[in-house]
Amino acid sequence: MDKIDIKNLTGKCLVSLPDVSGEFARSVVYICAHGSDGAMGFIINRRFKEFSFRDLAEGFSFPVSGEIYAPIGLYHGGPLEQAKGFILHSGDYQVPESLNTGGGIMVSSSLDVLRDIAIGAGPKQKLIALGYAGWAPRQLEAEIAENMWLITEATPELVLGTNDDDKWQRALASLGIGETNFIPSFGHS
Prior knowledge:
The protein is of the alpha+beta class. Helix content is 23%, strand content 32%.
């Protein structure tokens, strides 16, 4: 595997280590922007159980069709600005505001994209996140140095196509490791 430049993690996935607790426990985070001013990403394996795309579409008065909405979930993208929505999607669909993060994954936040998804004209693969994760300058690099995160390549299959319950294990497997490769830590000296 090629060495990953931790100064530019745009288009990569962070995989939390097993001993990380709290909001990022067993999480996979897609990084859409990273540079000298910090980083921004989305947790891609925390689907809301109590809130769906149908609820969101009805809130915007979009037309509702059961067969379109059934497979579309909403995700807890992170702890910041949880009322703001973002669409991670395949490159087969774009609007002028879409951000190409590389590797065939786009990020959009336009209501036009949600409207197109509602009528079945949006991207083939999509993940809708409410909120995001953010890091101040050098904060993410410090967390990586403290062994909170592993870094793996983001593929459209991992980000948009893998079952949520399998994303964490799949991300670890992409690095050639499994959960059993880790030794539990019991304390610090």
